[in-house]
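Please check our next protein.
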Amino acid sequence: MLDLTPRQIRVVEVGPRDGLQNEAQFVPTQDKIAWINQLSRTGIPYIEITSFVHPKWIPALADAAEVAKGIERVPGVTYAALVPNVRGLERALEADVDEVAVFLSASETHNQRNINKSIADTFPILEETARAALAAGKTVRGYVSTVFGCPDEGRVSVDNVIRVTQRLLEMGVREISLGDTIGVAHPGQVHQVLDTLLNHVPAERLAMHFHDTYGMAIANTLIALEMGISTFDSSLGGLGGCPFAPGASGNMATEDLLYLLDGLDMTTGIHRDRLFASARLLEERTGLSLCSRGRNGN
């Protein structure tokens, strides 16, 4: 049954990681720290601050440790980072992140390009990483990429998504973020995938991570909201793409997501004016041009 009853929605800000990882321009460490510090005071409850993937793969985030150690931590905000394996986890633990995120793809081809391993060979690495993180007292989030389409394989089987999602949950992963990595999902497809997946995984264990290649991110979010999803990833100003998915445009803009949620009387706890101020800070400090529809009327 579709449900748009007003409720608490959790917004996961991925701009400092997913937003910046694909930028050709290296954002200075102190500017990243200043931006995250301002985001921390917007009411956003969760910020993915960086990635501990080896710098040769993501040079834009080569300063992961410095950023994680340099930010001012606000009580009530979760500060998370992406980790690829136990070596990355060791660096993340040393920097004392609150939560670690592991990742793989629902598409075999994309997983090979992104991780250089098959899905089957990736599972043991993620399980080792998740167990070590849990043993260290950290929670674990999981990302599943190319849920709605792969740049090489096209449409991805829902069965693949179910298999990968269930395996991550068996590892002790707290929540699975389902990624529309290349932004090809449309509302009918989102409904179809979730209608099947929710027979196997509870809605409270899922989050949605939409990209906006065809301008469908907000429409797709509405469908997910109607189907009971309450956690959504977004990036301030729509920053971000995937370095292993050519042509992928940016993430759903946090400002646009907030406009939708406010209009539906959903509760986020986010202060709109502070959010816009943090966007201006990033633009002023870096010269990056942020694109979102949500600031056009303000």
Notes: The longest strand covers residues 99-105. Strands lie at 10-13, 46-51, 78-82, 99-105, 139-145, 175-180, 206-210, 231-234. The mean pLDDT is 92.
